Amino acid sequence: MSDHDPTAGLDLLGEDTRFAILRELAEHQREHPDSRALPFAELRKRVGRRDAGNFNYHLKRLRDRFVESTEDGYRLTYLGMVAYGRLAAGTYAPHDTIGPAELDADCPICGQGMTATYEDCILTVSCPDGHVVPQNFLPPAATTDRDLSDLLDVAALGLLQDAEAALSGVCTFCDGPVSLALTETDADTGWASHAYAGNCRSCGVLFRLSAPAAALVEPAAAAFCARHGANPRAGFSELLTALGNAETVASGTDPPSSTVVVRFGEESVRVRVTAEGVDHVPTPDS
Ligand SMILES: [Zn+2]
Ligand SMILES: [Zn+2]
User: Fold this and answer.
1) Distance 200 CA to ligand 2 centre (A)
2) CATH 1.10.10.10 segments of the chain
3) Edge to edge, what strands does the sheet with 132-137 contain?
4) Rounded distance from Cα 46 to ligand 1 centre (Å)
5) CATH number of 6-88
6) Which pTM was predicted?
7) SS3 135
8) Gap between the Cα atoms of 111 and 164, Å rounded
């Protein structure tokens, strides 16, 4: 785990007046992207603090790192924008559950219909047999102007991005280093004989990625699926179609490996999944 202290940031930005300063500057910036700065008096009025000394004290604590002073007034620094965006995502705020709703898509493993539910920041998609598409974390801000179908498309992109980053050794939650190992699964179907699993060495979050899902991250396989109308990043139904057309055709145990074929009609693409990563296997028909 990392040796920095995350609570220092929470204490600094979680205080009411300081949070309100970030919020007011962010709202002003959203409405006036070309003149982002707010004069001191206007900022204090928007934040609603009568005591100038107290307001000044809190503004000073944010200065330079999160808020900067310009000729036109105060504005967010880039770190200030990112920090507010992360706070505004509302991860720990209570919010409404969406669903469960039946999807117009079949389970890539057993072919039964699937159901989606968004609850407590997690989007879950599963079939009656409990085959679960990897759960996706989406903060409440993700629901802004989006319905469940839109959320599923955001989730598909997130799943692929998480997978790609983890395979490259990067945690999408904290950007810390990730180490994945390829291990045999105890799945009762031959669909996925192996899966990558591992932790972020900084925040500890657990990543798990079945071999067929990992194969879709391989650029040649992704391009092949896209040519057949199933770009895994384009939307959830495309991702499920691509997963449903993928199957494990060979696997080894020492060292662990798996060969995944994605088929559309007469055409196919072959990906080898090993501890080192995913590689396209050129074949005459790919
Ligand atoms: Zn299923
Ligand atoms: Zn992490």
Assistant:
1) 5
2) 6-88
3) 98-106, 113-119, 122-126, 132-137
4) 53
5) 1.10.10.10
6) 0.82
7) strand
8) 26
